[in-house]
Design brief:
The complex is a heterodimer of chains A (about 80) and B (about 475).
Chain A lengths: L8 H17 L4 H24 L3 E5 L7 E2 L4 H6 L2
Antiparallel strand pairs in A: 1-2
Helix pairs in contact in A: 1-2
Chain B lengths: L1 E3 L5 E3 L3 H13 L2 H4 L1 E12 L5 E6 L4 E6 L1 H4 L11 E11 L4 E11 L3 H17 L16 E6 L4 H13 L4 E6 L7 H13 L7 E6 L4 H4 L5 H8 L5 E5 L7 H5 L2 E2 L3 H8 L3 H34 L2 H4 L2 H42 L2 H44 L2 H4 L5 E4 L17 E6 L2 E6 L18
Parallel strand pairs in B: 5-7, 8-9, 8-10, 10-11, 11-12
Antiparallel strand pairs in B: 1-2, 3-4, 3-6, 4-5, 6-7, 13-14, 14-15
The chains are: A mainly alpha (about 80), B alpha/beta (about 475).
Amino acid sequence: MENKPNLTFEDAMKRLEEIVRQLEAGELPLSESLEKYQESMQLVKFCREQLDKAELQLEQLSFDDGDEIAEKSVVGEVSDAE
Amino acid sequence: MSTPMPNGVEAQVFTVTQLNRVIKERLESDPRLVQCHVSGEISNFKHHSSGHMYFTLKDEQSRIRAVMFAGRNRRLRFRPEDGMRVVCIGAIGVFDRDGQYQLYIDDMQPDGVGALYIRFEQLRNQLQAEGLFSPDRKRPLPPYPTRIGVVTSATGAVIRDIYTTIERRYPLSKIILAPAAVQGTEAAKTLVRGLRRLWSLQESVDVIIIGRGGGSLEELWPFNEEMVARAVAASPVPVVSAVGHETDVTICDFVADVRAATPTAAAELVAPHRQDIHYQLAQAVSRSYGAVTGKLKGHRQRLSDLRERPVLRQPARIIQVHRQSVDYMESRVRDGLVRPMRQATKQLADSERRLARVDLHRRLVTLRYRTQTLAQQSAQLTKRQIEQGGAKLDRQIAMLEAMNPLRVLRRGYSVVYDEGQNRIISSIKDLPPGKRIDVRVADGTVTAQVTTEKGVYSGGEQTKLDI
């Protein structure tokens, strides 16, 4: 679970909401409840880590019609602009 | 009244009234002046209590008096004021009393904006009729966008505002900027291209912000272009429109899924705040924990309820119950088996007692006596029967002796048998010549042969009397 490489933050949040809903519905057998609880804690940990370590990226497409993406950060430029 | 003139032409003299009337007729019949467009700057603006507007239109060299009656100016979309450049549509008229011609204005627009304003209105009505502004078309924004597309100038304050806002709130995402010109003649085209390029990315964006900073109507105009409006309407991902300031409204705003008052507001709409997410996560933790501990508590309660059951509290009772049933079964067995046995025993004892009361010896003597008596009677009876039987036999033997046919042979009769003495021959027909016969006489038998050719048939049966 923790090592899922493709898990996005959005997926994690969705999954977490789903699990909390299931747990609160109280319909799961006890053993499954405990498993889901563990999973929810891992998801919370994952989300918190994502939030804490995240750094906003900015990618700028080139202005021309060409489809190649200019992978340059324009944050500096943008901040200095005006 | 006429006065001779130096050139000999007789001149016509008008009264003032006549002259003004001629001028009035002349001016008001000129088609160029009946409906003319005039641009100029407003000065000496007066909005009379009657509702009519009086002012002067002027340019660098000249001026003309203008009036716009209340019935007309009520429909104005702006408030005229001194120094404002306007374009007016109206007719030249003459005010007889003062000998003044002036411009009677039917409609008026701020200069430079008017034509655009009309296009704006027309396009808005058209797209509205097509249903492009319908609330049904509005899509919700993704709650946790991974990739946020932005179509705006690469160098303006807009991208910076968006960047800093999202960095502060939700740095988990990535901003993909599709640079575009946000004013000027090429702007609409570059805006549409920017949208298209965001759509065509291999890794698609979750939401798009399109916008620019504040400006005049002309500057914002690209966002009122039909091609931009239609591109926004066609977007496969939700679009947030953020054009200008709060008060600026563009067609793009109407078509977009969400309208943001400013680019910063757009960024806030697009991305959740991480504080909120932290709060949500804390909520999730406590809700999960609460749910699971609640479940556990429920199970514990059930467990302890079960343990409180008498059966589990006093396991000996289980044995007691069984013991009881054993007892019960035993009593039933006793009823079913022991009682009949006891009865049988009792019957046996009774029988013994009764037997004991009987005098066996006397009974034996009696029986032996009866047996002897019966044996004697039987022997006497048998002897008598034998004696009687002997006498009867003697009589019967004598009778049989008297009836023996062989006694007749002693008187000279014989009997003819066929050979072998199987059959007594009593007819001549059974005695053909050569037939061998046995002849029985009183003291023996001889065998003979018929020698005669033919016997004599005397006919009829021999009777006793014929002998």
